[in-house]
Amino acid sequence: MTASIDGIHPTDIDLYWPLVEAWVEAAASDVASWSTADWRHKVETGHAQLWLIRLRSALSGVIITEIYDTAAGKTCALPIVGGTHLKQSLPVLADIEAWAREQGCTRLQGDGREGWVRALQSLGWRPVSVQIAKELI
């Protein structure tokens, strides 16, 4: 399957958000600190970037990226990745990587389930920490 990715301008959020909202919601449920509405606001205000994943021209997923500064340089985080056939969509990460380099980033970073570690190791990703949580409410 041929995968491609398109960056969406913040002014076009109303057009594309309904198509990806369920995927964002599902991915955001794993990242409890931000709601779906929070992610939409971050994209609308330019604090995060919305990317549409397509397989053979059909919309199949979404990535939201954020860039932030660290002591080691700029990091491009991929906190939201959702959709269908994501394993077949992994080649689009090369496009995100190229874009992140253009933005001056020195690192890509993602959080997620252990399955992502297995899926991404062949692309040069490595685990750097383990995040665990306990809900107090």
Q: Which SSEs are present, and which pair or pack?
A:
Elements: E1 3-8, H1 13-28, H2 36-44, E2 49-55, E3 58-70, E4 73-83, H3 93-102, E5 105-109, H4 114-120
Parallel strand pairs: 4-5
Antiparallel strand pairs: 1-2, 2-3, 3-4
Summary keywords:
137 residues, alpha+beta, Aminopeptidase, 4 helices, 5 strands, globular
Structure commentary:
This protein has 137 residues and is an alpha+beta fold. The protein has a single domain (3-111), classed as Gcn5-related N-acetyltransferase (GNAT) (Aminopeptidase, 3-Layer(aba) Sandwich). Helix content is 31%, strand content 31%. The chain has four helices and five strands. The chain has a five-stranded mixed β-sheet with strand order 1-2-3-4-5, sandwiched between helices. The chain is globular and about 35 Å long. The model has no long low-confidence stretch (mean pLDDT 88).
Rounded average pLDDT? 88
Q: What is the beta-strand fraction?
A: 25-35%
Low-confidence spans: pLDDT under 50, at least 5 residues?
none
What name is given to the CATH topology? Aminopeptidase
Radius of gyration, in Å, reads 15 Å
What is the straight-line distance between the termini?
43 Å
CATH class call: Alpha Beta
